[in-house]
């Protein structure tokens, strides 16, 4: 364990706003970040999957990294995603983010499809990528363990990483049976597991907190409504935390199962945070009926995203 206080709490993912032309809305991005700070976030993650990172050019990624870090300006820790199959590119992204003031990094293991055996890195190669990124950046690294990668990361492997790479001790677990994996990881890694987080919009949050998660990474749709769940649970008031969670779970479920990254954008358009919920092709825009269903669930809960810019 380092002397630094471990990162914990709520680190929602910032959406990337586009204009109707498809160009990045830089002013909208600044407003998104300000809104997320006002939502009571403990930190902000940029350029993640819910930021639509896979439709951004390399130059756009660099620009958004610099814009976001300059605008947040130390008000909150900023986590920058730097995933790439190529270790050298992941290292370049990590070094750039660290030089611009990122507090920590997140990356998935290297992956490129789920079927071609020759494109599946060995466990040792995965370890080496994490090690090189950490060495180049010199700041904490979070491993994102998500089904999207198709790469199996056993609790035993992750615990070994935490014990042997002092900067790689944060883990975002968002796989089937996340709570069981978190519990096993903490059991194996002990105090070397500095940041056991869950993700997937908080859809299994209560079980994951019970298993020992100390943080969560939601979208920017309702961090202000999720935060009390973490605060109450950490204070030992589990029953109250469960009551709050049960009220907001239908909205979380709707986002996770029907909307994906488009949910936060739709809410932020409704709330005057951003001007457009445009998503780049090949992603489809949110169907009007799906948007209506999302807002129907959100309005009685009144998340800040629905009113921030009005």
Could you describe the 3D structure shown?
The chain has helices at 26-38, 58-72, 87-99, 123-137, 155-164, 178-189, 205-210, 223-234, 238-259, 262-270, 288-301, and strands at 9-10, 44-46, 78-81, 104-107, 141-145, 170-173, 195-198, 215-216. The protein is 45% helix and 9% strand. The chain has a domain at 9-220: TIM Barrel (Alpha-Beta Barrel). Strands 1-8-7-6-5-4-3-2 form an 8-stranded parallel sheet. Helix 3 (87-99) packs parallel to helix 4, helix 5 (155-164) runs parallel beside helix 6 and helix 9 (238-259) runs antiparallel to helix 11 (288-301). The longest helix is centred in the C-terminal third of the chain and has 22 residues, at 238-259. Helix 4 links the parallel strand 4 (104-107) and strand 5 (141-145). The chain contains 11 helices and 8 strands. With 310 residues, the protein is an alpha/beta fold. The mean pLDDT is 96.
What secondary-structure arrangement, pairings included, does this model have?
Layout: E1 9-10, H1 26-38, E2 44-46, H2 58-72, E3 78-81, H3 87-99, E4 104-107, H4 123-137, E5 141-145, H5 155-164, E6 170-173, H6 178-189, E7 195-198, H7 205-210, E8 215-216, H8 223-234, H9 238-259, H10 262-270, H11 288-301
Parallel strand pairs: 1-8, 2-3, 3-4, 4-5, 5-6, 6-7, 7-8
Quick structural overview:
With 310 residues, the chain is an alpha/beta fold. It has a domain of 212 residues: Alpha-Beta Barrel (TIM Barrel), CATH 3.20.20. The protein contains eleven helices and eight strands.
Specify the CATH homologous superfamily of the domain at 9-220. Answer: Aldolase class I
Helix content: 40-55%
N-to-C SSE string, H for helix and E for strand: EHEHEHEHEHEHEHEHHHH
List the total number of helices: 11
Mean pLDDT: 96
State the low-pLDDT regions, or none.
none
Largest sheet: 8 strands, parallel
What's the architecture of the domain at 9-220 in CATH terms? Alpha-Beta Barrel
**Total beta strand runs:** 8
Strand content: 5-15%
Level-1 CATH class name of the domain at 9-220: Alpha Beta
Order of strands side by side in the largest beta sheet? 1-8-7-6-5-4-3-2
Distance between the termini: 44 Å
Choose one word for the global shape. Answer: globular
Q: Decide which structural class fits the backbone.
A: alpha/beta
The name of the CATH topology of the domain at 9-220 is: TIM Barrel
């Amino acid at each position: 364990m380092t002397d630094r206080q471990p990162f914990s709490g709520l680190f929602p993912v910032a959406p990337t706003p586009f204009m109707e032309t498809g160009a990045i809305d830089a002013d909208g991005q600044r407003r998104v970040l300000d809104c997320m700070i006002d939502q009571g976030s403990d930190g902000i993650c940029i350029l993640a999957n819910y930021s639509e990172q896979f439709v951004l050019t390399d130059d756009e990624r660099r620009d958004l990294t610099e814009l976001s870090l300059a605008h947040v300006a130390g008000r909150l820790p900023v986590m920058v995603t730097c995933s790439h199959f190529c270790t050298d590119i992941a290292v370049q992204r990590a070094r750039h983010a660290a030089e611009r003031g990122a507090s920590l990094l997140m990356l998935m293991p290297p992956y490129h499809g789920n079927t071609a055996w020759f494109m599946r890195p060995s466990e040792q190669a995965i370890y080496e990528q994490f090690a090189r990124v950490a060495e180049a950046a010199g700041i904490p690294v979070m491993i994102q363990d998500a089904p999207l990668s198709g790469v199996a990361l056993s609790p035993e492997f992750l615990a070994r990483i935490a014990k042997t790479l002092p900067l790689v001790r944060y883990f975002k677990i968002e796989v089937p049976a996340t709570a069981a994996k978190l519990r096993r990881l903490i059991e194996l890694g002990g105090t070397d597991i500095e940041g056991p987080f869950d993700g997937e919009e908080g859809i299994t949050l209560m079980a994951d907190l019970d298993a020992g998660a100390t943080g969560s990474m939601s979208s920017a749709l309702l961090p202000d409504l999720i935060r009390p769940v973490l605060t109450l649970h950490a204070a030992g008031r589990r029953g109250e935390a469960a009551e709050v969670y049960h009220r907001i779970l239908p909205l979380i479920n709707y986002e996770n199962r029907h909307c994906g990254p488009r949910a936060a954008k739709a809410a932020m358009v409704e709330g005057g945070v951003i001007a457009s919920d445009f998503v780049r092709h090949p992603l489809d825009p949110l169907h009007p009926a799906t948007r209506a269903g999302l807002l129907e669930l959100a309005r009685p809960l009144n998340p800040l995203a629905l009113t921030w810019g009005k």
